[in-house]
Amino acid sequence: MSRRIQLLAILFLSILQQSTLHAQWTQLDVGSPWQVWSVAVIGTTEFAGTFAGTYRSTDGGQSWTNVNGDFTNCFVKKGSDIFAGYFNGVLKSTDDGITWTDPDTSLTSNIEHLVVKDSVIFAGGGGMFRSTDDGATWTVIQDGLGYGQTTVTGLTLVGTKLFASTLAGVVRSTDGGNSWSTVTGTGDINDATSSIAAHDSTILVGWAGGIIRSTDGGNTWIWPGTDGPSYSGLVWSIVMDSTYSYIGTQNGVLLSTDRGVTWDSVGNGLPLNKVLSLAVADTDLYATSFNNGVYASTDNGKNWTYAANGIVGSDVTSVSGDGSNVYAVFNGDSLYSSTDNGNTWLTDTTLKVPGEINAVTVIGTTVYVVTGGGTYASSDSGKTWNTLDLHAQALVQSGANLIAAKSQLYYSTDFGKNWSLAEGSPMGVGELTASGTNVVAVGDSGIYRSSDSGKSWTKVNGDLIDVSSIAESGSTVVAGRWVMPYPVSDTVPPPPGGLFLSTDYGETWSSYSNGLPGFGSPQVLAVAIQGQDVFAGLTDQGAIGFYPSMFYSSTVNRDSWKNTGQGLPYLGISSIYLNNSSVFVGIGQEGGLWRAPLSQVTGVNFSGSSLTPSSLKLSQNYPNPFNPSTTIDYSVPKRSHVTLIVFNIIGQKVKTLVDTYQGRGNYSVIFDASNLASGVYLYRLTVGLSSISKKLMLLK
């Protein structure tokens, strides 16, 4: 091989490795905007910060695109670069906000406000900071700041002076942030201020009682009252330009044309609730209305139009599906459906249920919705619904039976029309998983198993309790635990969170959390298995700080997890759904619904171009001969019970690779023959009543 070919090969492998390290996550345009915490206009580009990440618009807010998963609070421009304060420091963009990096990861404070003075960037939020090298490094500046004054609620410049509103009055620096002093007249040490803005020598400060105003650069102040500004009430945000002053309040936007002496309510078309953030550019004004997204005005706030298309961030509590048919529950009360793998969505307005929707489950062609007021089934993609005579918490299918958890376990042999209490059912069941005729359940006192499709149960392990999620594939079961990481008492430590693995249908368990974050006790809310690949969704609730990602991948035979969630919001993942091409994750805390190509979060290599095969197919294993592992690809034309079994040359079964129900699609599985002798073996794929067999050769 020539040196040039070698270099090209190395370059190709490098690119391939890089592409597999970072999955291309996309937020799906479904749901509705909730809290949009910040809005800004930088040149001709608009930015909005939400729990689901940062959004960018170049058409006056008519359409938005999520550009990263970081919860950003503020934006500022310095030269050709844009900086954004987020919950873990300051981000930087050199391409007009399309991509972002964190130049100084040692800064881990929540940054809510940024201002630029000449070559210096000042940041405030959970402290006061300064950078003189374009965000590469940050230093703390707190000389003279007292108790409560390191919690910054606003920053502004008046000439060479830097002002900050804090939880203990307004502070001022006249020497570039080196030293600070409390501004006399803005309250004593216990008075909290909520916002600040300035233009020329006029400074407006918001607090719970309205606006404090200065017209002489902060030397003297006028408080609300007979001689002061006319508005009295909590002020969330302030912006000013050469002519107008605007404040965001509990009841919408107010406008002043006399630098805050008098205020008039404006907002035709703007929901009258608290306005968290304002941005102004010429006559264009933007406001983030609590629980209603972004609104825009082109006439100085007199009239407003909705401007949040593409900004979605509702709580997603459950995701399920069958192939490209995907269903998701938003905010616990709305069911959305997609028939094209999540590209377009339809709100199901036909389902009117009492109580909160706990989960959606798709079994074959039937959609089941589990609510606090009952269980509902649809066999026509949600067009019509039937009520099942059972208030369940979870549903699975095993063989021809439905198994439901309602404190105890029930089974149905007629698709939910009639139910029977299972023999030996445990109490307090909230989690279920099934593979073939084997079903595993989590009860108050441990793990239970059924080998007859849920009719009878036996306890297999009493040590593993407090399980929040569970998934099964063949004999492999993975359980995730979410527990508050606080001691039960002074002498009793908290139980460990994290993941646990069983390879014998739940009989025995081992810790399975190597590489997961969480300060020694990862908090797991969702798990999923497909073939040899395992996925975990984590939450930061109850932990200290934020995880670097919430989505991790591993394999059954390796206790080592990799971060494949880069780009997702730093919020808890509540649900995971896998089909043959994609992985979907539902994120709570207004994080929305996200999707990534399945091949980018696993080591699986799907053969062929079709993701919806029309015929049964079993490919030749590769490599062949092999040592000690090989990959087998196969295609399933419709949802069926599938087995893939390896036999020796005399017909004895040596290993079961697949034994479960699978939907229409292409699949891959790895056969590890480390414990087998060299020789020729047969592998047989059985789908329903059809079978295909091929030979493979193991050479050691």
What is the gist of this entry?
This protein is mainly β and 700 residues long. The protein has one helix and 61 strands.
Question: Secondary-structure map with pairings?
Answer:
Layout (H helix, E strand, L loop, with lengths): L2 H19 L4 E2 L8 E7 L2 E6 L2 E5 L7 E4 L3 E7 L2 E6 L2 E5 L17 E7 L2 E6 L1 E5 L7 E2 L11 E7 L2 E6 L2 E5 L7 E2 L10 E7 L2 E6 L2 E5 L20 E6 L4 E5 L2 E5 L7 E3 L8 E7 L2 E6 L3 E5 L7 E2 L9 E7 L2 E6 L3 E5 L7 E2 L9 E7 L2 E6 L2 E5 L7 E3 L5 E5 L2 E6 L1 E5 L7 E2 L9 E5 L2 E6 L2 E5 L7 E4 L5 E7 L2 E6 L16 E5 L7 E2 L12 E7 L2 E6 L12 E5 L2 E6 L9 E6 L3 E6 L4 E6 L19 E2 L10 E8 L3 E8 L5 E10 L2 E8 L6 E9 L2 E9 L2
Antiparallel strand pairs: 1-54, 2-3, 3-4, 4-5, 6-7, 7-8, 9-10, 10-11, 11-12, 13-14, 14-15, 15-16, 17-18, 18-19, 20-21, 21-22, 22-23, 24-25, 25-26, 26-27, 28-29, 29-30, 30-31, 32-33, 33-34, 34-35, 36-37, 37-38, 38-39, 40-41, 41-42, 42-43, 44-45, 45-46, 46-47, 48-49, 49-50, 50-51, 52-53, 53-54, ...
